[in-house]
Amino acid sequence: MSNEMIGVLSLLVTVLCYGVNKQLYRRFPTPLLMPILATPLVLIALLLLTHVSYPQYIAQTRWLAWMLGPTTVAFALPLHENRQLLRKHWLSITTGVVVASLVSISTTVWFADWFGLNEELQKGLAVRSVTTPFAIEAERVLGGPTDLAALFVVMTGITGMLIGEVLLRVLPHVRSKMATGAILGGAAHGTGVAKARQFGEVQAVVASLVMLIAGAVNVLAAPWVRVVFF
């Protein structure tokens, strides 16, 4: 079978797996069936069983990753619809995001260095707390591996969504809709926004805003991060 045919089949299988997985998750909303977790695991298993290499797989599926950019921009629609809420609380949201981003970057790099991880891993981990399109751009400035950065972003998003929901349940003093959205958007970016939508419209809007601001802050701060840490 030619590489072109393998690439086309990989694209079809990817879309099919995601569609089936999404329907299963709607019917059985358990963490193990989340599309962002289950679909990649199934695809990895299929690639290993069929001995399809990564270059063969990515040849015709690369454009799916390109769609992350337009998808992120689409988050601007609910922000526009709730602009009155954002005008009222923009200062507290922005300040919190900037501080949280700086703390996230610095502590991540320091812990990675403390555990003896090499510089490539440190650069990949430095941008783990922002959504993938922003993380890839920031990683290019840092000079690190973009594929590794994307992997850490996905792992952070899944972990943040799962742990974030648990923490929100055990922290009785966190009852504000804005605080809930900010926590999920800041800790789990895109997957956090999806989870925030299950809580309500306000939570989803704040999570989207936090995710976008955090991404912009990380991209703008990347040159200074490279100078200070690397």
Task: Offer a few descriptive terms.
single chain, 230 residues, mainly alpha, 11 helices
User: Helix-strand pattern, N to C?
Assistant: HHHHHHHHHHH
What structural class do you assign from the helix and strand content? mainly alpha
What is the typical, i.e. mean, pLDDT?
Answer: 82
Query: How many strands in all?
Result: 0
Low-confidence stretches: none
Helix content: over 70%
Radius of gyration based on Cα positions: 18 Å
| Count, helices | 11
The end-to-end span amounts to 45 Å
Strand content: under 5%
Main beta sheet: strand number and arrangement?
none
Number of domains: 2
What secondary-structure arrangement, pairings included, does this model have?
Elements: H1 3-27, H2 35-50, H3 54-66, H4 68-73, H5 76-81, H6 83-114, H7 119-126, H8 132-142, H9 146-170, H10 177-199, H11 201-229
Structure notes:
The chain is an all-alpha fold and 230 residues long. The chain has 2 domains: 3-66, no CATH class; 73-229, no CATH class. Helix content is 84%, strand content 0%. The chain has 11 helices and no strands. The chain has helices at residues 3-27, 35-50, 54-66, 68-73, 76-81, 83-114, 119-126, 132-142, 146-170, 177-199, 201-229. Helix 9 packs across helix 10. It is globular. The mean pLDDT is 82.
Write a compact overview of the structure shown.
With 230 residues, the protein is an all-alpha fold. The chain has helices at 3-27, 35-50, 54-66, 68-73, 76-81, 83-114, 119-126, 132-142, 146-170, 177-199, 201-229.
